[in-house]
Amino acid sequence: ADYKRESDPVNAPAQLQNLGMLAGGAGAALAASLVARKPIMNAFSNMGGPMKSIAEAPAGPFYIHFWAPNFKWALSINNLLDYDRPTDKISLSMTSALTLTGTIFMRWSFVITPVNYSLFLVNLVLSTSSGYHLCRKIKADYL
To answer: Taking CA 34 as the corner, what is the angle to CA 32 and CA 118, rounded to the nearest 5 degrees?
Structure first.
C-alpha cells in the first residue's frame, strides 16, 4: 500500500479503497456461503439422482477436499501459460518447490480419506509443468 501511494499518489487512494471493498465483498460472500452450506446441501440431497450423490460425496463441493485442489489449479494453469517463459525469469527455488509439492501431494491424495482424485490430477499437472520449467532452467544455467 505504501509503495502504491508513493508511486501513484493521485490514483492510489481510490484503487486501494476499491481493493478494500472487493476484499470485504469476498469476505461477506464467503461468510454467507458458510452460513448457507447446510441448507443448500440439504436442498441438493433432496433432489435425488446425480445431484444427491454429488452433494453427499465425501470429496464433494460442500467440503474442503473439493475446494483446495480447485484453487490450486491457478498455479498449474499459470505454469502451462508460461511454457515459453525466458529461463532467466524462472526461479530455481520456486520451481523446485512447486515440483516437489506437486509430487508429494500426488501421493498424499491416495493416502488420505477420502481418496481425492481431483487433488491427484491438479498435482500431476503442477508437478509436470513445474518439472518442465525446472528442467529448462537447469539446462540453461548448468548444462
So the answer is: 125
